[in-house]
Design goal:
Elements: H1 30-33, E1 39-40, H2 43-49, E2 69-74, E3 80-85, H3 94-105, E4 112-113, E5 115-121, E6 124-130, H4 137-142, H5 151-170, E7 184-186, E8 192-195, H6 218-223, H7 230-244, H8 250-258, H9 262-265, H10 276-289, H11 300-308, H12 318-322, H13 337-343, H14 347-357, H15 363-370, H16 376-393, H17 397-410, H18 416-428, H19 432-445, H20 450-462, H21 466-488
Parallel strand pairs: 1-5, 4-8
Antiparallel strand pairs: 2-3, 3-6, 5-6, 7-8
Length: 489
């Protein structure tokens, strides 16, 4: 069965100039949100966007172990997207799946990770949403490596989630499946958004609830179903995550709260960042949300009003609060392993990749370096290359610079790989300007060589020129894609 175009035949394509935003859609026009109109995608298009659903493109935190896997993808218009691939059993009825997706595609808001498409071909069921480059709340709360999430940012997360839920409630999307820290993601500006995937029923009867049962709403444990009030309970569990910086079962948290041991609940890394009254108010709100009787829980309007009183640094942007780089533009193209290593300045990985790649991209120089040893000059050149490569392999970068410099002077044909390796050696020797010069020389040797652009990006990052570094990463990725397409054809 092909994609069910009959269900979305009246929806405009994002490339259709006649597509008009809907100003009544929650007070936010699609144009203002810069979100393309919902459409159906072909399976081949999404397979290409995810490199054949490659495991390297998986962004789900539980990787391929998750029953429904989320991939990063790049569409032909260079838009990065998240593609959720459902398990074979989740949606046996393709018509029902598309109808549900189309309805969800109409729910748009600046606090949601908006749904922009779907696909139902054969037994495949896929959703396409905006791509969020700065990971999940779970990552920033439980697995941070640079700094813990600041108190003010945690309050902002609570407020933004409440905004998203209140909008969904107004759009008659009152049930949210499995709200937890994995469902909150951070966009290119560092602003927290609620994943729209949780608004989609993820089984044939909407019964599934993937988190640990200790965190499930009491009514779900009793009946096996979620109801609109269940999302408030789950919101309370997220508040506990924000307050404590770790997973605490609601029953344990309620015991601490009732025993007036609120300080035992708080994340110790937040010491000095908040007023005790503010922490108490957020704890009290969590307690209200976690009531076992659904009628005792507040509604989304109450959540919004309560958390709004705790927002103190509204003028400070999220990326500043989170300590993210100011230039956080989303890459328009996907990076190779070398590009990724250069983007995150992982010098060990860059060294390993350069070693494994060798001289295979450097065709002209490789021929020059490997022809028959028939003169003393050629023998000396080959020995110099050999000693340079050994020093580079053994991370003796000072010696590598010396040998490669001799080789550059001796070689009748310049070698892009030699320049690239010397560039990296200069970087490891703290000489970023010389590294940039050599990376540019490598580009002169092979004008569209992605490695040359990636190494320039690395050197520019070391020089503090982040915007230029980002441009070089983009150029390298563009030439990478061009090269791959030429190989396929």
């Amino acid at each position: 069965m092909g994609c069910l175009h009959s269900k979305t035949s009246q929806l405009h394509s994002p490339d259709d100039p006649s597509s008009q935003p809907d100003p009544a859609n929650g007070g936010q026009a699609d144009q203002d949100l810069q979100v393309p109109a919902f459409k159906e995608y072909g399976l081949s298009e999404l397979r290409k966007a995810t490199n054949g659903f490659s495991t390297d493109y998986i962004v789900s935190e539980s990787a391929e172990k998750a029953p429904n896997v989320v991939y990063r993808g790049k569409l032909e218009n260079n838009r990065l997207v998240a593609v959720k691939r459902f398990s074979k059993q989740s949606w046996p009825d393709a018509q029902q799946f598309v109808a549900e997706a189309v309805g969800l595609g109409k729910v748009r808001h600046k606090r949601l990770v908006n749904l922009i498409g779907c696909c139902a071909e054969g037994d495949e069921r896929l959703l396409v949403a905006e791509f969020m480059p700065h990971d999940t709340l779970s990552k920033h709360l439980f697995h941070w490596d640079k700094q813990p999430l600041p108190w003010e940012m945690r309050v902002r997360v609570a407020y933004n989630i409440a905004q998203a839920l209140d909008h969904c409630n107004a759009e008659n999307r009152k049930i949210y499946h499995d709200l937890n820290a994995y469902r909150v993601l951070f966009d290119e500006d560092g602003d927290p958004r609620l994943s729209s995937f949780g608004l989609m029923k993820n089984s044939r009867d909407g019964k599934s609830y993937s988190t640990n049962l200790a965190y499930s709403p009491p009514e779900f444990l009793r009946t096996g179903r979620v109801i609109p009030e269940s999302v408030i309970y789950s919101y309370g569990t997220v508040l506990l995550d924000l307050l404590s910086g770790k997973h605490i079962p609601p029953s344990r948290a309620l015991d601490l709260i009732s025993g007036k041991n609120v300080l035992l609940l708080m994340d110790s890394s937040l010491e000095g960042q908040y007023a005790n009254d503010d922490a108490t108010k957020l704890v009290e709100l969590a307690s209200k949300c976690l009531q076992s009787e659904t009628r005792d829980r507040p509604d989304t309007k109450f959540l919004l009003a309560d958390v709004a009183l705790l927002l103190k640094q509204k003028e400070v942007t999220s990326h500043v609060l989170m300590g993210l780089p100011k230039n956080t533009a989303v890459l328009p193209t996907l990076l190779s392993p070398l590009g990724k290593a250069c983007a995150r300045i992982d010098l060990t990985a860059v060294h390993d990749i350069l070693l494994k790649t060798g001289y295979k991209d450097d065709e002209g120089a490789e021929n020059e370096l490997s022809f028959q040893e028939w003169t003393q000059q050629v023998q000396e050149m080959l020995n110099t290359k050999k000693f340079g490569d050994i020093a580079f392999r053994d991370k003796d970068f000072k010696s590598a610079i010396e040998y490669y410099s001799k080789l550059v002077a001796m070689m009748p044909v310049p070698s892009a790989t030699v320049f690239a390796r010397r560039a990296f050696a200069y970087l490891m020797n703290g000489q970023a300007e010389l590294a940039l010069r050599d990376a540019m020389q490598a580009q002169v040797c092979i004008p569209e060589w992605p490695t040359a652009f990636y190494l320039q990006a690395l050197a520019l990052s070391k020089l503090g020129m982040q915007t230029d570094a980002q441009d070089m990463l983009n150029d390298g990725a563009t030439f990478e894609a061009k090269r791959q397409n030429s190989w396929r054809s």
